Amino acid sequence: MTTDVDAVVVGSGPNGLVAAVTLAEAGWKVLVLEAQNQAGGGMRTEELTLPGFRHDVCSAVHPMALASPAFRELELAREGLAFAQPRIPLGHPIAPGDTAYLRRDVVETAAGLGADGPLWKAVMGTFGSRWPQLARAIGNPLRPTPDLIALGATSVWPTTWLMRGLRDEHTRALLAGIAAHSINDLHQPATALIGVALGAFAHGVGWPVAIGGSQSIADALIARLRSLGGDVVTGHRVRNVDNLPSARAVLLSTTPRQALQLAGHRFAPRYAKTLSRFRYGPGVFKVDWALDAPVPWSDPELAGAGTVHIGGRGADVVRAEREVAQGRVPDEPFVLLSQPTDADPSRAPEGKHTLWAYCHVPHGSEVDMTDAIEQQIERFAPGFRDRIIGRHTMDPAAMEAHNANDIGGSIDGGLADLRQLLARPTASLTPWATSDERIFLASASTMPGPGVNGMAGRLAAQTVLKRLG
Ligand SMILES: Cc1cc2nc3c(=O)[nH]c(=O)nc-3n(C[C@H](O)[C@H](O)[C@H](O)COP(=O)(O)OP(=O)(O)OC[C@H]3O[C@@H](n4cnc5c(N)ncnc54)[C@H](O)[C@@H]3O)c2cc1C
Fold first, then answer.
1. Residue 430's pLDDT is what?
2. Residue 149 in domain
3. Residues within 6 Å of ligand 1 by CB
């Protein structure tokens, strides 16, 4: 392994790799160390079921990667990265034959939302048309902009409050489903922030998949890093920062709990204590399928939806997510499903399909949700199970074994509630710096938070350059 470097980055997810590229662009020699045998963290794509079927193990849908200033500045299309847009970003079946659609076009979306159409157009249409400003605002909430203030004023409220003002069930279901990406009780404040941002991005940039799988994003970042003289070493789990090659800076793309294990002895006691209070939220149970034909949706238009939210009415989604937040396993879970092969047929042999879905479960839950998830799909696609030719499941323990950052199956780098969105992982104007002047944090557990957006990595690397460059 290289022994003479300027920076060591621990972890090769989007934040670790964006941080590494940012430093390498500034002329630093950077080494990325990755515990797993395949680089990419939450962007890995693997043949989980059958040969020739490539499944996104974690992230699958990429409005944030497309909108994020970090990714846009890196222009990864130069490394061959390309996205495919599904015909419809999101479908949300409410009852068989009755589906709410979030379409690219805000006017078409509003037309399906009855009395709420004008409100949807005013809020989502306005934010959607200002997506670059919105992405910049969310990308660094420590620098408030008019767009961030407008977003906060519109949607810092609990999702359930906003739902009370809606008159059409289609709008309530759509909003509850996109807000549930917060992996939180939707009665909590700030859950609507994520819903409004994701809804606006659907109109602004779409909800695309990466052609070839999310791994293509990681591969593009690694190619750029190598072209700048950096390197990624896989199969190397870091256990103590003192054993790393000597470097001017160490960037931990881990959650606070692991940062304490690797570097706790280097932190000031007060800082270490604050990190130890960081909270981890619910987990996920995930299923990937190989199918010999498309999902037989009762509503045939759902075949064109890249993402399908399955949970019925808005109130049913709210109930399922509240049960999870309170530590109970819902009988009828809210299922987030991605069907990438309509937009990107390269993922499966000709005529065949891959399908990806997960539901939220209590932190560390050991309950097998395969049957509950498949039953939810069967409600809106009778005969779905007959199309399955391969299946792979991951419970929270398997998620954590795949990626040590997914503690207890928590895929967001730690609970993203209002408190931990504002103080992530600590209340500071430079949350990427630690109490040790040479150790930095660069993961979804730091500002601005989860998703394949690379912003925490970009901001951490910029902090390094400002302080040590
Ligand atoms: C099932 C699932 C679905 C998701 N869906 C989406 C989606 O559709 N769209 C989206 O934008 N986001 C999605 N996400 C979230 C997204 O994947 C994460 O927010 C994002 O990957 C976090 O990036 P990161 O760089 O902070 O860390 P990660 O991507 O988690 O990477 C951390 C890396 O650090 C490595 N590591 C940890 N400890 C060590 C150590 N001690 N030594 C060496 N290496 C170490 C890990 O192995 C891992 O590779 C999903 C996540 C999951 C799990």
1. 96
2. yes
3. 10-16, 33-36, 41-42, 58-62, 64, 237-238, 253-254, 258, 284, 286, 358, 399, 403-406, 411, 413, 443-444, 450-452
For 36-52, the pLDDT digits (tens) are: 999 999 999 999 999 99
The set of residues, in sequence order, having a beta carbon less than 8 Å from that of 58 and lying 6+ positions away, is: 41, 42, 43, 44, 214, 402, 403, 406, 411
The reply to whether 344 and 388 lie within a common domain is: yes
In this structure, the answer to whether residues 372 and 460 fall within a common structural domain is: no
Cα Rg of the chain (Å, integer): 21
Q: For 332-368, how does the pLDDT look when each residue is reduced to its tens digit (9 = 90+)?
A: 999 999 999 999 999 999 999 999 999 999 999 999 9
Average pLDDT over residues 79-93: 98
Residues 94 and 200 in one domain: yes
What is the CATH classification number for the domain harbouring 39?
3.50.50.60
Q: What are phi and psi for residue 222, nearest 5 degrees?
A: -65, -40
Q: What pTM, to 2 d.p., does this model score?
A: 0.97
Q: How many domains does the chain have?
A: 2
Pure H helices in 228-382: 256-263, 269-276, 314-325, 370-380
Burial (0-12, 13-18, 19+ Cβ within 10 Å), 44: buried
Task: Pick the last residue of a domain from 352, 374, 402.
Answer: 402
Burial of 105 (0-12, 13-18, 19+ CB in 10 A): exposed
Range of the domain at 366: 83-209+282-402
